[in-house]
Amino acid sequence: MDDQGGENLNLAMELFHLLLFDARDRGMLRDDFYYLTELMLQKFKVAQSIDPFLQFPGRPLEQAYLIWRQTPRKMVNALLEANGFSLPDDFIQRGPLTLFFEE
What we know:
The chain is mainly α and 103 residues long.
């Protein structure tokens, strides 16, 4: 949340992306340098309407980036359900989410 009470999901994603890029670039992607607890990762997932026990790949910093990179589940599910579709429970978005509907 920003100082005006609005969500800043893109900013959170970008900050974790910058940390991840820097860690990889310097060869320092180490958990002792970028420490995130499992509880923190679970809270990130809950904020994104993702099952807190869904396992994301990678180290905690990579997981944090992937979690914040997800399109919020409530929005995606609302769009899909309105058109008769749904996401599997274990869905992890690894790139841009593009939906095509045929008429």
